[in-house]
Amino acid sequence: MPKKPSSPLRSLARGLLRASWHKQNLYNFFKKEAYRRSASLYQQKWESKRETRAYHGDHITENNWLGVFKKNLVGAETLHDKDDKSGEREPVPIALQLYAPIERRLDMAMFRAMFASSPRQAREFISSGKVKVNGSKVKHGFYPLRPGDVFSVEPECVLTAVGREKPSEGFSKEVDTKQLEAFEKFKENCKEDPRNMFEQKFTPISVDGPYDPERLYQKVRAMTVENLMNKIQDLTLDGVSAEDLVAKGQMEVEQYRDSFQAGEAVTADDPSISQLATEYFRLDSTASEPSAEAKDLLKRIAQRRVEIQQTELQEFVRLFRGAASVYDPRWYYPYLEEYCGSPLPWQDGAYGLQDPSKPYFTPWTPRTFLAPFAIVPWHLEISYKTCHAVYLRDPITRRGHSEVISPLPLYMHENAYLFYVRDRQ
Fold first, then answer.
1. Looking at the DSSP assignment, which residues form a beta bridge with residue 414?
2. Virtual CA dihedral for 143, 66, 378, 380, nearest 10 degrees?
């Protein structure tokens, strides 16, 4: 079991930044104040050490950290480009390499790969036997990774870490009760005034804000002939042709005409009429007068044509006569019965407990406030489909870039390095 810290990890009063995805940690970062430049040199170094150690390896004791601390920091230096005449070259943030040895730990690598919400949770997964390194189970979070090592986590653990927290039965019941009350009220409003509710749902939300007579008056005054002509010209330049601005009435007339022509074409192309006509011409090709059988075929052809025309006319009236007919307030009843067959039509099961056997919110959704922490380092190659990751190399630093992720500024790492170097001498 991990040792319980003596002070709260996410104390809003202390405001220390932790390696965690918790929303209170994000709030501490938001309200972080500027560094106190008026303090003495030792106070600055002590405060920098306190802030940086709170984020880098807060779950590691100070003695264990001093055991892996390296006095000589290593960075990558690129060759000078002779074509660069400006002479301005970004410095190498070598001080960020202070906590590079911690990035080699298995629990920290899992946190960087977004397989766990914090190094402490990663250590819980490791001690439970849910993590493998190169195909073998490892139960120690301090296991040092080497370049080329492949570590994997059970997908169920990753879904638990990245997904929303599973609600309790009482909380789920409370949320479902509120949702059902709101839904029942919505159904009653739909039954009382369905047209108004339909218009409310499909009315776009106004982006102009509340009604302001002065602003409306200014808009009316600005609608001069010159402005309108400029807007029309802009529409033309944007590719809107005059054919796209057809009047609504003309479009409706064309729809009626096309529907009538389609009905005529259907009666002419009906396969039953074509077969009867072929049979009639076969019987009537040699006779001087139509035979009784041919006359019977003519009657059947005429009768079939009338039936098809009546069917198409009824379909035409059903589709295009709705606007002129009297409004039926019960038109939505069949759809409402189908939609309301389940007490919770928008979800299967209780809120967040669609599958109670899972240790996370179901159906699975990512946890809130995850975007600010979604940073994948350069020294890891990650596959979220299989929950595997490759430790490519130890984190390095170049000009203007460091692979050691830290939310704290560079000068804090410099002061922390000075504190530990002096302490080790």
1. none
2. 0
- 101's tokens: 């040895």
Decide: helix, strand or coil at residue 255.
helix
Checking if the pLDDT of 204 tops 60, the result is no
Of the listed ranges 38-52, 127-141, 254-268, 354-368, the one predicted with least confidence: 254-268
Q: Cα 76 to chain center, whole Å?
A: 37
- Residue 362 pairs with which residues in a beta bridge? 353
Spatial neighbors of 115 by CB under 8 A, at least 6 apart, are 122, 125, 153, 157, 158, 161, 387, 389
How far is residue 355's CA from residue 399's CA, in Å, rounded to a whole number? Answer: 50
User: Residue 345 — φ and ψ, nearest 5°?
Assistant: -70, -20
Domains in the chain, please, with CATH? 23-77+90-165+363-424 (3.10.290.10), 204-325 (no CATH)
**Strands 380-383, 401-402: parallel, antiparallel or unpaired by DSSP?**
unpaired
Secondary structure of 67-114 in HEC code, one letter for each residue: HHCCCCCCCCCCCCCCCCCCCCCCCCCHHHHHHHHHHHEHHHHHHHCC
- The CA distance from 96 to 378, in Å, is 15
At 48, list the tokens: 């920098």
Characterize 11-40 residue by residue with b for buried, 16 or more Cβ atoms within 10 angstroms of its Cβ, and e for exposed: eeeebbbbbbbbebbbebeeeeeebeeeee
> How many residues belong to the chain?
425
Task: Please say whether the beta carbons of 392 and 386 come within 8 A.
Answer: no
Q: Which CA distances in Å does 41 have to 36, 45, 69, 416, 424?
A: 11, 6, 22, 11, 18
The model's pTM is 0.62
